[in-house]
Amino acid sequence: MPQFALTITPRSYELDALGHVNNNSISAWLEVVRTRLFEEVAAAESGGAGFGWVLASLHIDFARETFYGHDVEARVVDVRPGNSSVTIDCEMYQRGEKTVFGRAVMVHLDPDSGSSSPMPAAVRSRFASYAAPA
Question: What is the pTM of this model?
């Protein structure tokens, strides 16, 4: 499985009143990870990063607080392509400790009808290369 990870530097405006990175910022960070993964895997077939794909589901578990002042490593830990959708699991770590688990389901759309449509086989294969070992 190829590794896919990004380093995110928390910014002061992303904090909540308690000094933690706000949950909305975490959601946005997960979107950045997905977008970059799509740029690497599916951009050529979908006309650009994310075009032709929509978010169908997003689940986030907060394992512990994320703080300002220390970088966060966001790692894609599993990718499961289906026929017309792909499930992407991501974990975030700060100072070696897991702070967040996020799971997103993205659906491939037909640009003319706006309905779900099968993703190209080449894209499915590239997504499958990021699947966690069984």
Answer: 0.91
